[in-house]
Amino acid sequence: MPCERKPMRYGHSEGHTEVCFDDTGRYIVTCGNDGDVRIWESLDDDDPKFITVGEKAYSLALKKGKLVTASSSNTVQIHTFPDGDPDGILTRFTTNATHVTFNRSGTRVAAGSSDFMVKVVEVSDSSQQKTLRGHEAPVLSVTFDPKDEYLASSSCDGSVVVWSIEQQTQVISWPLLQKTNDVSNATSLCRLAFQPAAGKFLAVPVETRVHLYERGSWDHVGSLSDELLTQPVNVAAWSPCGRFLAAGAIGGLLTIWDVNSRLVVERQKHEKGFTVCSLAWHPSGSQIAYTDTEGCLGLLDGLGTSGTGTSSTKAPAAKPKDYDDLFDEDDDRLMDEGLSDANSPVKKAAEDEDDDDFLIPSTGRVRNRGAILNDENSLDTGSLKLGQDKFGDDEDDDAGSSVAPATAQRPVYDGPVPTPPQKAFQPGATPAHLTHRFMMWNSVGIVRGYNDEQDNAIDVEFHDTAVHHAMHLTNSLGHTMADLSQEAVLLACPSTDDLASKLQCLHFSCWDTSKEWMVDLPQGEDVKALCLGQGWAAVATSALLLRLFSVGGVQREIFSLPGPVVCMAGHGEQLLLVYHRATGFDGEQALGIQLLQFGRRKRQLMNGEPLPLSPKSYLSWAGFTAEGTACYVDSNGLVRMLNRALGNTWTPVCNTRETCKSKSDHYWVVGAHENPQQLRCIPCKGSRYPPTLPRPAVAILPFKLPLCQTSTEKGQMEEQYWRSVLFHNHYSFLSSSGYEVDEAAQTQSDKEQQELLMKMFALSCKLEREFRCVELAELMTQNVVTLAIRYASRSRRMNLAQRLSEIALEKSTQLQEDEEPEDEPEFTSDRLTSGYRQSEPYNTRQNEEDDEEEQVEEEDGREMETEETKRRLNPFAKESGLPAKPSLTPVGRVGRSNPFKVPDSGKLTSSSGQPRASNILDNMRSSRKLAPLSGSAGKPSKGPVLKPLAPRTKAKAQSTLLQISSNKMPSKKTPEAAEPAADLQKQPDVVAPPAENTENKRPKTGFQLWLDENRKIIIANNPDLDETDVIKEAMGRFRTMSADERLSWTERAKGQSGDAADVKKRKRAENEVVESDESNARKKSSSLDPSSKLSAFAFSKN
Amino acid sequence: MDPSEVEFLAEKEFVKIIPNFSLDKIYLIGGDLGPFNPGLSVDVPVWLALNLKQRQKCRILPPEWMDVEKLEEIRELERKEDTFTPAPSPYYMELTKLLLNHASDNIPKADEIRTLVKDIWDTRVAKLRLSADSFIRQQEAHAQLDNLTLMEINTIREFLLDSLNCMYKLRSNLQPGATKGQFADY
User: How far is it, in rounded angstroms, from Cα A252 to Cα A338?
Assistant: First the structure.
């Protein structure tokens, strides 16, 4: 018996749903958990009439224009049909009725209720009621005997009872079912049924079988079973002719038996495997409507029950079915979660089928096959015998006995089942079978397709009306696919019998007058997917070809696809191509992905890698973010984005299902943006796709990486950090492919990442996780490590600080190595030397700054830190944007040779031999000592200290060379430079006298440096001296220094005074002048270093 | 206060629009608006929304409460209760009028909404009159009326205050020699 399973459609909200046909078979009538009765003209009726009968409708029955429903108001109501006017209440119960049914003539209604009672009511006069008492649990189901003599009912107490209606007594009762306390807990609804015409049998679903009892004698005359039926049968329904019995089971299996032969004539599996809870035959017997517990409605069409001689045609039909099973394997629906409707095996085998590829007439061969398989599968031999036993004593016709073994031999293949491959689709389009649909919704605009009686048209609308005005096209060619870009609309239609598949392009941005072109594909080649990029259009065809066109219509490259295309997406020069790599098994799809670039250098970025999908899901959207990163969504709502930084891997960035309120809600993704991080999608209530009307509104979902423990602070920050890193990968990609990059945004993101790292660092510090701190520090940029070091040392974690300083050094070397090659060739040797020379002062200056900052920090406490982070991060982040100027600062940081500073015994410590480990500690000590001094000065020296003094080119040279010097530089010079500088701030007037130079303040600094170094010694020698005395003493000592040294300092100072920047600087506020002096001083001090003396000399000659 | 003034205040309410143009953030005294991305909804004050709408630069999304079912509920509640129920929006009348007059093509079932809002308005104003009436009848010195919107207060303010003044004058004239003690009898 061939039949066609129509796709399921949404009928009611989730829950028990019932279905019946009206007397003429014109309407399908359903009721469901939403309390509505819907009247469908056909399965495709998108606007069914509905009657609201209550909050929930439990059951319905329809006969002779009367619609009887059991609703949640504990009543059984009548409505007229099809008008839906209320026609009174038939009866009431103390609780809700569970099942209502008409008798054959439509004069009586029987209703079973959860209050254990069954009532039989006259439709014309509801006062004439008969109550059948005796069940000890809620009644599951009731059915009338066609002769109106008996009534059968099943109940949760486990009994199936036949009542005599007139006498209101039990005729017979069988304990057949499992006992439960409520209908909702019952394993099976046990919808029993009397055979209609003859009334010979009563069918009772019991477990996985349907028992047949003979009317009158009430003998058990047989059972209908099927070895594929492994779950309890929920509902049984007789065909109107009484010859066939259909049963719907829990796992969604629909089975139809020929009752005479007791043979299965049809098996169908619910497409999603939901429990079938109601079945109804069309009055003509050609259709079965069924509903599931999720509220969906389905239809089996084309059942040939009226055909004659079915038994003889069925015999051969059953055998090829086995063959099918073995090789085609797609009718083993137990595991089939099929996406596309697979046809029934029986249908394929049927005589009148076209595709006789499957039809193997040699029955013997097939049997052998079956036997072989049975041998392999020992389980099956048992069932074979069982089957034979079962059918052995059948008194039925010849065909029955001969076919029985064949049916029983059906080899049950329980290995992996291939998944039907997902069909090609356009990302951003709703399914083609809808009359009103979106053909494309993307970031440019919307293409809507209408295909109804009046109109077959396409509407193109642009989000930004500046791109182009809206267009209305008549769709005479029947286009089913569309794509839209800033330049063009691309449309394509599949081929028909006489017309080839066509590709049409409306190139509206074209500057000449012909804005349209059309291409016919070769005969037999159909467009399967298409997409538009910048200046090109791509079409994937059924001939496994990818054809590339220019947007003006020139044919370009053509190449073969590795598999049937699933979808394509274009962005700029990139083409994303998803195809079937292989056959997937057990609900999985095996997709591959290619990413091509059509720029000047044409290349393949991803070469057919498998596309990761969630288990048992398929691809539902694929495309690019606005910034050009590939990204896709699977049917489980998981959004994944390409991570270019990790070798083109895919990172899940969002799960849209998490934000859905209900299980059946979905988000229909229309686009993604990386900056700002937005997933643009349309919320669809109760469906996967949005309707075209009312016009859906776009919602925005945030991205979230599925990291562990995001409820904790640590997890949150980690998530934020990695998300930020991932979503800013595109900057490097864009700049590498020559696009303009929003530098401000990039800076911002870098800053954000470093801040997050610092926060995580602080958190780990608090949690005493020093190792973790070091790990975090590895991720930081160099100047943030400096901060981290400071943080660590302030929180007295000296070990940590040590390790961090090692990292800092490593990073500085790395940075330097990275930058070295960038040096421009014109920076010749003399520049380099000058760089060397200058680098030291800069280092020292930097030290000094650090010191100052520390001083302030000590005063201001911790809150300063954040501010400082910002200030420090900013210049660094700019580095990439402005090569020369900002690099000064980071390099200065690099030259954070504070670690090298030995405040009290600089001369004693050998420069190279200084252990790095003690660096930071020394630094801390010195800064602490300085703190009170600067405190008394009361002049916070923050602010604009960091302004570069030197011209740009010099700064550049320094930037590259400083690190070297920072490492090489004798550490003792640093403190010399730094400390007097700090001193000087306080006492400029005191130091003024020793000026030996025309540049009045410059000599001070030389002295200052010296003072700084020797202050402690002086103090140690003369502990009772006060501040001014110390200075005096120091001055005395300074004068005793060798003329050589003093001279070099002076010369340095002179050279420095030539700097334009310096001149400018002097115009600034007092403290800034001091600053610049300091820096000069430091330069001088560094010239003490023999290695840099030469360079100092060279510079002064400039 | 003039109704037009109240309407002016209502124009500061925010409403969602879907612009069909692209514009960066705009910085206004009242706060920053935007950025405007074509196809993406954004909150803007009503005055701007209407301006853009008139220039066909946007579609207005009706506020959440401007929905037939919700308004029906509110209407039923308003009819059932003796006191004022919270209005769907402090400027529901003004917004309805503004949006329906200028953007009725963006609001589904505009006519029904118009009727419903009018019904709600009528019910509320009737209540207001009734309470004013009883206020005067009972010669109360004060009364509490919650959940009134500005527009509703405005409809009755002038009339009520003037009439109270008049009545005061009349009463004082009625009993020229009346003392304060006698007034207390009222």
Answer: 13
Mean pLDDT of all residues in B77-105: 91
Long-range CB pairs of A1026-1029 (<8 Å, 24+ gap) are A1027/A987, A1028/A990
Phi, psi (deg, nearest 5) at residue A444: -90, -45
ipTM of the complex: 0.79
pLDDT confidence bin for A799, thresholds 50/70/90:
confident
Gap between the Cα atoms of A758 and A466, Å rounded? 44
Cβ(A1071)–Cβ(A939) below 8 Å: yes
Instruction: Check whether the bond before A612 is cis (ω within 30° of 0).
Output: no
- Whether A320 contacts A349, CB under 8 Å: yes
Using CB atoms, which residue from A680, A694, A698 is nearest to B108? A694
pLDDT (0 to 100) of residue B68:
92
State the distance between the two ends of chain A, measured CA to CA, in whole angstroms: 103
- Residue A964 class from Cβ within 10 Å (0-12 exposed, 13-18 middle, 19+ buried)? middle
Nearest alpha carbon to residue A478 among A457, A452, A460 = A457
CA separation, residue A1046 to residues A667, A708, A844, A991, A1091 (Å): 77, 63, 18, 15, 17
| B177 within a domain of the structure (yes/no) | no
Number of domains forming the structure of chain B: 1
Ramachandran class of A89: left when φ > 0, alpha when ψ lies in -120 to 50, beta otherwise = beta
Per-residue pLDDT at A545: 92
Output the domain CATH number for residue B75.
1.20.58.1020
Say if the Cβ atoms of B39 and A694 lie within 8 Å: no
**Whether pLDDT at A1022 is above 90:** no
Residues 6+ apart with CB under 8 A from A1008: A980, A981, A983, A984, A991, A1078, A1081
Q: What is the CATH code of the structural domain delimited by A436-706?
A: 2.130.10
**Residue A282 pLDDT grade (very low, low, confident, very high; cuts 50, 70, 90):** confident
In DSSP terms, A483 is beta-bridged to A490
Q: State whether A465 and B61 contact (CB < 8 Å).
A: no
Domain spans in chain A, listed from the N-terminal domain onward:
8-301, 436-706, 720-737+744-815
At residue A780, what are phi and psi to the nearest 5 degrees? -80, 160
Instruction: Give the position of tokens 């604009």.
Output: A944
Q: Which helix (H) or strand (E) holds A758?
A: helix A743-766
Task: Give the domain range for residue B85.
Answer: 3-172
A9 touches chain B (CB under 8 A): no
- Residue A571: half-sphere exposure toward Cβ, Cα within 13 Å: 21
Contact B39 A466 (CB under 8 A): no
Residue type, A140: L
Beta bridge partners of A482: A491
The answer on pLDDT for A829 being more than 60 is no
Q: What is the pTM of this model?
A: 0.51
CATH of region A8-301:
2.130.10.10
Residue A149 region, left (φ>0) first, then alpha (ψ -120 to 50), else beta?
A: alpha
Statement: residue A726 has pLDDT above 80: yes
B43 strand-pairing partners: B16
pLDDT for the residue numbered A1051: 61
> pLDDT category, A853, cuts 50, 70, 90?
very low
Give the B-side interface with A, CB within 8 Å: 18, 20-22, 37-41, 56-57, 61, 108
For residue A814, the number of C-alpha atoms closer than 13 Å in the C-beta half-sphere is 9
Structural domain includes residue B23: yes
Q: Is the pLDDT of residue B117 over 90?
A: yes
- Domain assignment present for residue B182? The answer is no
Mutate to test the interface with B, among A464, A467, A677 (most CBs of B within 10 A): A464
Encoding tokens for residue A112? 């079973």
Answer yes or no: do A466 and B41 touch at CB < 8 A: no
Chain centroid to CA B43 = 20
